[in-house]
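Tutorial, part two.
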Amino acid sequence: MRLVVVGNGMAGARLVTEVRARDRDVRITVFGAETAPPYNRVLLSNVLAGSSGPAQVRLLDPSWYAEHGVEAVTGVRVTQIDRDTRTVVAENGRREPYDVLVLATGSEPMVPPIHGVERALPFRTLDDCHRILAQALPGRRAAVIGGGLLGIEAARGLAGRGLPVTLLHLADHLMERQLDPEAGVVLGETLAGVGIEVRTRVKVTDVLQEGVALADGDLVPAEVVVLACGVRPLTGLAADAGLEVRRGVVVDDELRTDDPAVFAIGECAEHDGTVYGLVAPAWEQAAVVADVITGRPARYRGSRLVTRLKARSVELAAMGETHLGDEHAEVVRFTHRAAGTYRKLVIRDDRLVGAILLGESDAVGTLTQLYDRGLSLPGDRAGLLFPGLAGAAEADTPVRMPDAAKVCHCNNVTKGEIRACWEAGARDVAAVAAATRATTGCGTCRDAVEGIVGWLCDQEGVSA
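Running the prediction step on this input gives:
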């Protein structure tokens, strides 16, 4: 069987590794428009801040492809799908036949109709990071347009470089899709505490050489302007080939398009009316498609979204129906604005249907599992928000975590799997990551993995 994958990002690269793990004989060719090996986009803010280098966010080494019999064609775009002959055509004229084609084309930055917007730098790819860093010189000021997840990550990264940063957002509060107004205010105050000026309810009208002009007449001085106004699925290739496209490329529960030989996964795919823009759903979809095309029964039933932001001094997890109030559900809240803490649980029929956890919290792991699994909640609601309250067991500590507890949600890695990996000789986080992929998704589980590895070493008297 000849498998062609269009897109060598987080979804495409994961699919290739999943297929090769199941079948050594499938002939695999993967096309990537970027020249760099696949990398973790979620961690690009660390590259921007200087806390990680490009090699540290890489998902696959270039040598992996040769070692596993996979042909990677990088720096080359696929421009056409010829469904009649089952062939893809690349911009360099290459024609590659397929028996199965998987589209993992991802998304592109949205560019609002702002005068002079071409002077702004998008924040989406590793090349974007390099372009931003080339301008982020000492003594310069930065403005970031867009107060969603990407905009906040960009602002935090630039602030980590020592630049004064102004974050500009059109909506009433930051991350309005994931957060309620109170959480948005607390997040804004947290960012202010690390040197980021947050301005909401502002409309950018012009990007000038000297800064950003606003509709109210103000000028925000900035030599570096970063654009982070959201993304949209890259569907042109599929649409030109006559495949059904709405917001994304429409797929069924096997992630097939309306052409049975063509699948779509990740940010370009629309399943049951939803386009997922997070890494965990993309990786779940990759596993399903890998099963299907290697002859194993599998179905994708959708994903329960957990949005995570973890930058220095800023930790956030939001999941489910976060905007519901007391009139529609049981809501449990705690706010300590001076400490940058906001916690909210949304409960229906004794099940957790939404949560916001802003600020450092030892409840994130337990609450994410309760949300993922739809489990009945204990009656002690305060104990859910504060696991150590009144002597309650702290479920996230290595000692009390059951082996079945999920530590890395992006890759479905449990404490038991980390323990087994440690017993097989993995003595540090890098070795655990290589064996299980834990920490290679959003990166928020790194502290937990370090804690478990350290605890195991201490228990057995082994040097890490």
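Confidence is low (pLDDT under 50) at residues 390-396. In part three we will examine how such features are distributed along the chain.
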